[in-house]
Amino acid sequence: MRELLLCPPDYYGIEYEINPWMSVARGAETAIVQEQWKQLHATLSKFCKVHLITPQPRLPDMVFTANAGLTVGRKFIPSNFRHKERAGEQPFFAKWMEQHGYQVGWLPEKLYFEGEGDALFSNDVLFCGYKFRSDIQSHRTIADMLSCLTISVELVDPRFYHLDTCFCPLPDGGAFWFPNAFDEYGQRAIREHVTDLIDVAPEEAMHFSCNAVVIDRDIVLPEGAPQLVTKLEERGYRCHELPMSEFIKAGGACKCLTMFMPQRQAM
Amino acid sequence: MFSETIELRGHIIDSLILPKVLDQILTHGGNFKITEVQIGRKRADQSFARIEVSAETGEALDELILRLRQQGAEVLERANADVAPAPADGVFPPEFYVTTNQQTFVRFDGKEIEVTPAIINSAIAVDRKKGDARAVKFFDVKKGDEIVVGHQGIRVVPVQRATTHTDPFQFINNIVDAEEPKSAIIREIAEELRRAHSAGGKIAVVGGPAIVRTGAGGHLVRLIEGGCIDQLFAGNAFAAYDVERALFGTSLGLSPDVAIARGGHENHLRAINTIREVGGIAAAVREKILTSGIMHACVQHDVDIVLIGAIGDEGPLPGVTTDVIECEKILRDKLRDVTHVMLLATLRYSLALGAFLANNVKTVCVDIDPPAVERAVERQPLQSIGLVTDVEPFLRELDDCLSGSKVSQ
């Protein structure tokens, strides 16, 4: 059974603005936040073993555990957050992973890298996004640490600032994605390495439809993407659509709220 | 041209980062040269590329490098040049850097300064306050001057073979032998001179006495009158023969027109004496004593004349510089902005002047002696054409090509 790390949204809120989705003036509704997160937790718990990390005050985005780091086998590479508002999350995640038996491999401090948010495996190829949050320089260090082929793709739309907001690999080697979030070289690189690509329509991409958690044939994704759901169901996937409105206000949804432990077995 | 070396590492082939970086360099007006590339053999192996990136201005390069850094490019730090003080007037410090005639840059405080002029067999004196680097000869240097030592922080930019057009100066076989046809290449040279002049180039002739003695002077006069020549370098003998021919119809007693000329050898000395008496060539023209010939044409058409002395010169004529150090200073100064030089029938002055030519100066060397042509041409690779021929047919053909089409519009 796959294992996941989640963080309860006890301190979650829009307290600063570090992406185009965030507006301090448009805060999240606490009661709805709790309800939406619990629904996600309950859905994922059906297919996975879910671990919880204790949330910390003044770290409202700690709920987005995908950005804690990248886990491969028993190795955990903690993130180096670009924004100081999130940098405080790093020691809590690193300590928790270490306490749970993971070997922590640190990146050099000067290299920005935001974990699974910008690093997703498709089979044995690690796709890494760069520019808004992660630096491309971090990718080759990660490739060295994991001994795997790393395809760096440039993100060009600030609304899709992490790779997991516009690209979601599927276990059969395909993926669904929002191509306009990538520059032409990134699009070409993805097309060359991913066989069956499902394009997500712009209006559905804006509902964070690519920010989905894929557990074998089950896909947990935000509601609001009927066209995508149809295409996925045609391919034999079971889609679980969840309301994510309060987290989308902070630029995150199902996948951002989840980190795989591990995302992939050791290479 | 400003340049930096960048390095790319990682899965730069699969991620298309290498083509992206090269495309970005070109689309932002820069240029590149890949100096090293290592492609990973296994799937997880990373690749490596070292690329020299250049741009027209320092600002354009900085902007380009900033973009490339976002793609993971790391800029290779270059070391600054080392300097040492000159221990005495006219003496360079040990290990001083010896220049070539290639475009050269020295690096100080992370910035490159171009060395001027680009002349061979000099040292480099730097004035860091002024941001200035000069190629200096022994006679230029004063005790305490800062001179570049060693090879660190020096970048030499050789002339590249042109890729945008066919340049007759860049033919691989750039010497036309005595038995080969020359008309076509002379037409190409004429076209190049015409093009150069209209683009603001400066054309110099270095002439040997054979031009006058073979009776080719008239062709050179027409080229001067046509505005094709900006500067004339020659020895005392060249000027003296030309004046003798203008005054007496002979040069060193011989006439190209009659088998036995009147007056013989003494005409040569009488001609020199006439010019000495009147005070100089320009004065002789002004007073209508000298009314024809190459010197006359130069004075009439404001072509700058530089006359260089040598042992055994008769006279010399007024205006001939006999101090060799002074000669070097004049040559360096006068050749600074010359773009094209025709070295005509004079090995001695061709080699002397060659030492002051930057590598981008185009040269045409004409001499009847093959080794003389070879020696002159080898100094300017990719920038010179040599023709093994008597100078008279060369000038006649060039005159035919250019006369009637005044080039200095």
Please describe what this structure looks like.
Helices cover 27% and strands 22% of the residues of chain A. Chain A has helices at 30-47, 84-87, 89-99, 136-146, 184-193, 202-205, 226-234, 245-248; strands spanning 3-6, 49-52, 69-72, 75-78, 103-104, 119-122, 125-130, 149-154, 167-169, 175-177, 197-199, 213-215, 218-222, 238-242, 259-260. Chain A has a three-stranded mixed sheet, covered by helices on one side. A three-stranded mixed sheet of chain A has the order 3-4-5, covered by helices on one side. Chain A is globular. The model of chain A has no long low-confidence stretch (mean pLDDT 96). Chain B is elongated. In chain B, helix 12 (370-377) links the parallel strand 18 and strand 19 (384-388). Chain B folds into three domains: 2-73, Alpha-Beta Plaits (2-Layer Sandwich), CATH 3.30.70; 82-157, conserved putative lor/sdh protein from methanococcus maripaludis s2 fold (Beta Barrel); 168-402, putative lor/sdh protein like domains (Rossmann fold, 3-Layer(aba) Sandwich), CATH 3.40.50.10690. In chain B, helix 3 packs across helix 13 and helix 6 (236-248) crosses helix 7. Chain B is an alpha/beta fold and 409 residues long. The chains are: A alpha/beta (267), B alpha/beta (409). The A-B interface holds A 131, 135-137, 139-140, 143-144, 147-154, 183, 185-186, 188-189, 192-193, 267 and B 9-11, 14-17, 19-20, 43-44, 46, 70-72, 74.
Radius of gyration of chain B: 26 Å
Structural class of chain A: alpha/beta
Basic shape of chain A: globular
**Average pLDDT score of chain A:** 96
Going by CATH, what is the homologous superfamily of chain A? Answer: L-arginine/glycine Amidinotransferase, Chain A
Proportion of β residues of chain B? 15-25%
